[in-house]
Amino acid sequence: MGRVTAPTPVIPVPPADLPGTLGALRAAGHQYRTVKQELRDNLLARMRSGEARFPGIVGYDDSVLPEVERALLAGHDMVLLGERGQGKTRLIRSLGALLDEWTPVIPGSVLNEHPMHPLTPASRAQVAEAGDDLPIGWLHRSMRYGEKLATPDTSVGDLIGDVDPIRIAQGRTLGDPETIHFGLVPRTNRGIFAVNELPDLAERIQVALLNVLEERDIQVRGYQLRLPLDLLLVASANPEDYTNRGRIITPLKDRFGAEIRTHYPVDLELELALIRQEADLVADVPEHVLEVLARFARAVRESPSVDPRSGVSARFAIAAAETVAGAALRRSGLLAAAGAAEGRPEGAVARVGDAVSVTSTLRGKVEFESGEEGREIEILAHLLRTATAETFRAHLAGLDLSGFTALVDDGTAIETGELVSAAELLGQVGTVPGLAKVLDRLGLGDAPTPEEAAAAVEFVLEGLHLTRRLGKDVTDSGRTVYGGRG
User: Fold this and answer.
1) What InterPro entries does the record tag this protein with (predicted)?
2) Is residue 339 pLDDT above 80, yes or no?
3) Which residues pair with residue 328 across a beta bridge?
4) Distance, first Cα to last Cα, the chain
5) Which of the four CATH numbers 3.30.70.20, 3.30.750.24, 1.10.3720.10, 3.40.50.300 does domain 22-261 have?
6) How wide is the angle at C-alpha 178 spanned by C-alphas 172 and 183, nearest 5°?
């Protein structure tokens, strides 16, 4: 299944009971606040009420989020530094939820000017002329977030703005803000603006952000417009970008109030929680299979064969889980005809053997050390076996599994594989002493489906092989044959 581009979100409609004029706004007791005051007040309100401050952010509760909260409370612009796939963009986008749901604006203002705090001469004149009868509009917080992926072709005009020659030809002067076609940053006035991968921005373009961060005004074509912008500027960067692709210029780094380092999940449970939250699974993936994949991702991340500067994204484990689910769905589809003939179609439940496919499909997500060229799949296959063995020991250590080893004592072989149905696998093993305890340890319950039972049996067989209690061969047809070690 391919991902499709999400449709353009519908702009929310403000509630009918919101004030419609400047006079009504004042009568309602509305007080003007800057964006940073707004973020501070709303963050404190969530802290006091116990409401989740950053829903959907996993693994940062005791490390990154306290630093982000301190920066917001201090009113600091911030830059998040971390390797790829550490959720920097997700965290930045979550900041928008701390804004007021609705904020008043002067209708038609490109800069989202507050009716109590107009910036441009035209808006100030409009407010002075209309007074309390000035009609006001309302802007939803979803429209107060702007984002730009820094690319080498990004220009000052894209970010800050440029002189509009047509307006000059109409007779306006350079001193008139109406001659400027504003860029992304001023158009996000009274909101949050994010620059992703900041070091990729050319140094001469980074200079254009200096005034935005310190003096809070903008310069276009050498003409200084005293338009004090009100926004929170947040940037993301990979630490290695300072030397590999570019760097954040020193004056710009100095203007960010906070530099916050992100990280990958620090323990297995957080890695699993991230997979469960983010993976779009098209089939049932048992917990022990997800744990194998989580351990696999962590093993790849820590491997000396992998370039530590590039990191192994959290997307690696997420894509692995989705690939395994896809393999289970493929098996279900291919065996559908045979299952229907027997009166019960094959359900889509992943097994540990389905994980083998990820070593080839996901190797492009990993940057290996230069000396490992040509050994990528071999390294990943070894790490996957290690992760499987660790999961096996974590769940089934100390359990009497002699009933499984006894299945092959007389030379009998057990075949499994991607296209072996659950019924076929279970038919080969029959009633195995100890299977009920295995199912209990793996959290599959007292009444698992045949597909879940088959997933448990295959996991035990693979674990016994990896702990040198069963032999294993792979046939030319792709089937896996477990037997004695003789």
Assistant:
1) P-loop_NTPase
2) no
3) none
4) 44
5) 3.40.50.300
6) 130
